[in-house]
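#struct-help
A.M.: can someone run this one for me? Single chain, 248 residues.
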Amino acid sequence: MEVHSHTHSIHKKWYHYFWEFFMLFLAVTLGFLVENRREHYTEHQREKEYARLLYDDLKKDTAWLHRVILVKKWKEGKMDSLLYYISQPDIQKNANQAYYYSSYLVLDVSFEPNDATIQQLRSSGSLRYFTNLKLYNTITQYYNDCAFYLEVERQRKADFPPDIRSALFDANDFYSLSIPTPSILDVVHFPEKKMQLLTADKQVINKFLHYVNNVKLNAEVSVMMLQTFVSDDINALRKALRNEYHLD
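D.P.: on it. Structure tokens below:
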């Protein structure tokens, strides 16, 4: 008599399959949420880091802006003195003053923002980290306005009339007044000997007066632009970054 062995398969019920599917779905979903949260946290940390770098750049920009405005206003005063002395009837009598104040004509400083951070943000596409639209617009407005200011400065210098100092001043005497110094405010010293202008021709003097007035006007326009929209942009952006990221 043969004994037949039968293998009995255990059939899972439908809710077992449902439970396994649910657990797998839950594990995948939780993994996705954790990864998404981790990426969000990482991006937020990068956003805060870039905000701090921008804020530090702006503090340097603020200090440099004040310095540039100070120098340009100081130069305006020198140009006023030059215009006064060069307009006197006996110009040779004021030759020493003319030499001295004319030495400041081409001395200048320009404002340029510290743009290492914004350049990195733009080139890497990391500006997207700043999700606050108002803050994003404030950032772009500041650097766009700085670029506009620099373009206006370059254009004014390109359109500037030729330097006609050579028609009035002896080159050796003129450049003997400049001395190497860390500060632009101390780069020129008053002549110790009696100077002589090369000519007292009224047409030459008049042309030179036009030149000096152009230099003074350029300094005034530059100061106006820096004191208005550039300065306002810096203050607005620093305030926005402070409020958004609690910076000090």
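A.M.: thanks! The radius of gyration is 35 Å.
D.P.: also worth noting: The chain has one domain: 17-245.
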